[in-house]
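Q&A log
Question type: sequence-to-structure
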Amino acid sequence: MKLPYIKVEYREEETEAPGKMSPALIVGFGLHWAWVYLLMFNGQIILFPQAASMQALLAVTSGAAMALTLLLYALCLKQARVLFATPFAIRRNRFGAAVLMVATVVLCLVGNGLPAAAAPCFAVAGVASGVGTAVLLMSFGVSFSVCDLPTIALCTALSVPVSAIVLTGSLMVAAVVAPVGAVVCLALPFLELLCLNRCSADLVDKLEFAYLTMPVKMGTFAALVGIPSVVFGLLLGVLRTCALATLPIGYEPRLFAGALFAASLATCAALILAMLTLRKSRNFAFRMLIPLMAALLGLLATPAGADDFFRAFALLGSYFMLESCLWMMYADIAQNYRVSAFTTFGFGHGLLSMGSLAGFLLIQPGEVLGFVPGDGSALAVLALVILPLGFSVLPNGAEMRSSLARGRFCPSFAHETDIEDFMRDLPAPTADDAVVAVPVEEGDEGVTVSGQAVVAETPAPSAVDAPGTTPATAPVPQPAPAPASLTPEPPAPPMPQAAETPAQTAGRFKRKCAAVADTFLLSRKETEVLFLLAKGRNSAAIQENLYISAGTANTHMRHIYRKLDVHSQHELIDLVESMDVD
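Response status: OK
Response body:
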């Protein structure tokens, strides 16, 4: 009798680590949204009473300036690279943006004191607010884009209560002493700037491949990211206006502040729960939060919608959830596919701002959706139409990969056999390849890997040679044989071999790592981990260098080994060294 053959295979669970918090990123991002919400939700009521009549002007100029600035980031990135060429230039741009945001508050205060000049003051204030907000928002986008998905979700979730705490505190203080609220508005941009510079130093400046990005097919990418952004932006504009419409003439700051804080806590809890349970793609939060948003907005059509607290809670909670989901999607696209954060957030958040502005204008009295603010049933129906429509046009992984302009080192692989065929076409190793060069940092000792001599190099981590530079190697001339009738003379010493500069060595090694990352479409964080693994670093060193937890480091290593189809660090080093780069 033939017994059945049973094969037992063990596979390590492909779970993700919960991410590592960056306090500077959480607090700074929370301060940014607190400043925006101060102008958006309560500034014209407590700080700037004159703004009640200038609300449309301030919103239109601010939204248009913000959308235009973000789109210029995406469309004119090559021409504007000189503005971000050095860390000093980047910090100068951020400081200028903070000054513009402070100027916004000053202009609004002047407009309140001089009613005759209110219109031009609020128009200029809106432009200054839009440009300054866009520049700082893009800087946060760069910091988020170098984090892995769990960290993106965790920092986004925790920043929502931070913004609510700052905003509700400002509400309560300004209701008692209005000038104190103005001082808070003036101080927030500079506090945000300090946090932004700190998180950039922790998360971006130390990376080797922070600005190594994949080119995209501009039209395809803009459509994939922009269409859902415009659709959801319409709903955000409607929710914002409806939230403002819930504020009665006898405005009670405590009621609105309580609803705001409750909505932020609910959003934070929902985002963290979605991250822990459904984290499989950039759209994980939408699958959980869209039904929750639909339920909250649907309840507005019931008797519960007549309660001011619940109405404000539902509108603000839906607003926070939707905006957080979109932010995480943009950051994960930039991180997972190594698309420039300027391109991703430029098209994504720029078109989102345009959609939000359109939703705000459509809901003004006398316009198409002018009936929605006072009609909970109409708002529920509108939300139930827009939410599924926006979800249906969200890009999936295959669509995002098709938008990448993949070149020599990044062919569009349809399946794993294409990768295997590509690897078989690589040049076969020669006898000279017996020595594996592993760049190490100063102070490291040479090591031996699998019986092969490993030559230690010391590249300068920050030095990158110019693209296309090829290290020159001069042949070593051999001395001519002496005639037999003459006494042989000592051979002349061979001419020294042309040595590579540290910059050339470091640049060539980094280009090899970049070629592997492009070929196998590694994410930003995986590219940084690959670089350290190819240098012979272990998990502990990777955690320290990249500001990630032990679980996250091990997860990235597993993903890299699987994508590259290697089973050890030695095989990974061989693969990197076998890449042929110019």
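Response note: DSSP finds 19 helices and three strands in the chain.
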